[in-house]
Amino acid sequence: MDLYEAIARRRDTRAEFTGEPLPDDVLARVLGAAHRAPSVGMSQPWAFVTVREPATLSAFRDHVAAERQVFADSLSDERADTFRGIKVEGIVESGLGIVVGHDPTTAGEVVLGRHAIADTSLYSVCLAIQNLWLAATAEGVGVGWVSFYREEFLADLVGLPPHVRPVAWLCVGPVAELQEVPDLERFGWRARGPLERVLHRERYGG
């Protein structure tokens, strides 16, 4: 699979996990791809926690289910009906969670390129996640980014120290298929817009 195909095939996986264990060599390759992401000042400000313990997976699933209900309760009736059919996680089904954390201390206090924009460190973590996701896609492995959680709960669940901020819980595992159309489009939540709508020339609005 070439790069552009992997970008086009990448999906946020929810219902397609088979439950089969991910081979250790495949996990090593996708984590290695994440670790090779560019980072501000070569700081590599990320931490990865792999989670397979069923009790931990179940505890996080239950927390996410509660947060899903909080969100559902805030929707209009029509929007709630649409949301009801959308699966937002595959935590237990995947059998493997990778918690990605942002650790701004990995390169000390003086980081080349971070003095004016502190968030460049956080952006670097997002690049690592994208590397992991594209590598997993090339391997035929599904990834689902779960965002229905409270950061304090997840940090406590996997023992992150106070200075490491949880950025993502990624459900990772073999899948029966990757959907041709992303879930949010298939279920009518939102469609992808054209590039021209967000492209500006020389100045915003140009």
- CATH H level, superfamily name: NADH Oxidase
Q: Estimate what percentage of residues fall within beta strands.
A: 5-15%
What characterizes the major β-sheet? Answer: 4 strands, antiparallel
Order of neighbouring strands in the sheet with most strands: 1-2-4-3
The overall pLDDT average reads: 94
Q: Structural class of the helix and strand makeup? A: alpha+beta
Tally of discrete structural domains: 1
Write down the CATH topology.
Answer: NADH Oxidase
Question: What's the level 1 CATH class?
Answer: Alpha Beta
Number of H- or I-type helical stretches: 8
- Report the uncertain regions: none
Question: Would you give an account of this structure?
Answer:
This protein has a single domain (3-197), classed as NADH Oxidase (3-Layer(aba) Sandwich), CATH 3.40.109.10. Helix content is 40%, strand content 14%. The protein is built from 8 helices and 4 strands. The protein has a 4-stranded antiparallel beta sheet with strand order 1-2-4-3, sandwiched between helices.
